[in-house]
Amino acid sequence: MKNAYNAKAYSAASATSPLAADAIPRRNPTDHDVQIEILFCGICHSDLHQVRNEWREVMPTVYPCVPGHEIVGRVTKTGSAVTRYKEGDLVAVGCMVDSDHTCPNCREGLEQFCPNMTLTYNSPDKHLGGVTYGGYSDSIVVDERFVLRVPKNLDLAGAAPLLCAGITTYSPMRHWGVTKGKKIGVVGLGGLGHMAVKFAHALGAHVVVFTTSPNKKDDAFRLGADEVVVSRNADEMTKHTGSFDFILDAVSADHDINAYLNLLRRDGNITLVGAPEKPLPVSAFSLIMGRRSLSGSPIGGIAETQEMLDFCGKHNITADVEVIPIQKVNEAYDRLLKSDVKYRFSIDMASLKAE
User: Fold this and answer.
1) Which domain range does residue 245 map to?
2) Which residues contact 347 (CB under 8 A, 6 or more apart)?
3) Is 0.85 surpassed by the pTM of this model?
4) Which one of 84, 227, 241, 297 counts the least CB within 10 Å of its CB?
5) Do 158 and 90 have their domain in common?
6) Lowest mean pLDDT among 176-180, 184-188, 213-217
7) In this structure, are 287 and 234 located in the same domain?
8) How far apart are CA 101 and CA 22, in angstroms?
9) Greatest pairwise CA separation for the chain in angstroms
């Protein structure tokens, strides 16, 4: 293909195929592009949904599918007009690689809401045709405006999940004003929840973790929680009625949202970042009586994602990861379904050289 080169990758050929070694086209850098050697790529639960076409109603998967949107790497080449990066820089790429730059959302630095956003994978590729391919690959080429700088002090394997799990939890905390002196709840201690605890703690808040698993208590405290509540214990829950400024709900399974709405103080907010498959019944009175609000939040914009990375550099925050070679990715997907990871998988892309 003209103006393209072949990159090594792992792709899924269908919804039922395991991920396997493949060669994919990448464009040669244009004037404003940055070519990146991928060093680590996190595994996000959405990778699994996308590979297995479980979101076919909303965004059907085009095959072959190369997932991965938690990318950390090193710049290997820059286009002639690139000013922000040079060869050798440590950089990152998150869930999006382009937007229209002209809509009201883009003009406000909220590219994550752009109606014409290009996702890192499984989005129409305006350069090569077909769809975009993600970070389960040895390299990627991205417009410099969607490339982020990684603080040098961060462990790169642990930094990769910051590009999705990190910004997904940081963004709503910034939006709803989580600061010192605020009482903050985190529901669920998984890939997203463990990042939320670290951020809320670093922001100076009083952090309470809600979990259904008593055996997660020690870990919650290690991550920065001030209190841990086993949510199945009604007495423990009642003790906190009407006391929270903000609650981040990171649970994707079916659960009773009203139990948490009642824990908010007047004008408190609960934000969903987990996405349960079925709608959650909401009691109108739980909202009305305290002027409480229920909202949702995706990732952040590019400027906010850079702010988050810089915040992580300042406070030395990374995800807790289990590093795996690419050859174990299918096993990792099976373990992800069983929540058998603390708390995120990070793929060492050096392992792709063996393919």
Assistant:
1) 165-296
2) 40, 41, 42, 43, 68, 136, 323, 324, 325, 326, 329
3) yes
4) 241
5) yes
6) 213-217
7) yes
8) 33
9) 66
